[in-house]
Backbone:
């Protein structure tokens, strides 16, 4: 169930200052609204016995708006786009106590910092640009996040805008007979 889609700037100064149109500010706003929507959906669809496993997962996506034409793409990026289009790169389960801590991890990860970020930059090299999908569920101390990355074509560096979107994915309970 789609929730919101907005664009945010990857400009360094915009993000450093957390300008309202920065990726960082837009991500916080969209994630905060998605967490509230997931809680409201759980409350609307559950009775008193409902637990966190019935809370819809949040699907948060971040991808560049503008890519270079296919004829200008490096062969490495074309190969990685084909491979990760079928099998995205996965970066395990992480747990964060708040949206702010998750946001800080995303910023490090997407800039090649920390263990996951360094691995990302090794796996998605050259001038290839990643697109991110974060599957977010309630955790014991906040948010449990699984990360998938599509390593794709080179973005047009003249355009610093990225699409950010959120959606809810309901959880189905298996019926045992």
Residues:
């Amino acid at each position: 169930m789609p929730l919101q889609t907005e664009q945010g700037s990857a400009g360094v100064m915009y993000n450093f200052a957390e300008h309202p149109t920065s990726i960082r500010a837009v991500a916080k706003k969209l994630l905060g609204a998605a967490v509230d929507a997931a809680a409201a959906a759980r409350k609307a669809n559950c009775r008193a016995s409902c637990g966190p496993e019935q809370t819809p997962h949040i699907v948060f996506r971040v991808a560049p708006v503008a890519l270079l034409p296919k004829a200008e793409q490096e062969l490495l990026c074309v190969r990685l786009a084909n491979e990760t289009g079928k099998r995205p790169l996965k970066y395990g389960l992480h747990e964060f106590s708040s949206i702010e801590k998750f946001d800080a991890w995303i910023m490090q990860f997407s800039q090649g910092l920390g263990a996951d970020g360094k691995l990302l930059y090794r796996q998605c090299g050259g001038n290839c640009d990643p697109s991110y999908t974060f599957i977010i569920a309630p955790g014991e101390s906040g948010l449990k996040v699984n990360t998938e990355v599509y390593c794709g074509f080179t973005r047009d560096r003249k355009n610093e805008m990225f699409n950010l979107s959120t959606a809810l994915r309901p959880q189905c309970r298996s019926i045992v007979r």
Notes: The helical segments are 12-16, 23-45, 75-86, 99-110, 114-123. The first strand starts at residue 2 and ends at 9. The radius of gyration is 17 Å. DSSP finds five helices and six strands in the chain.
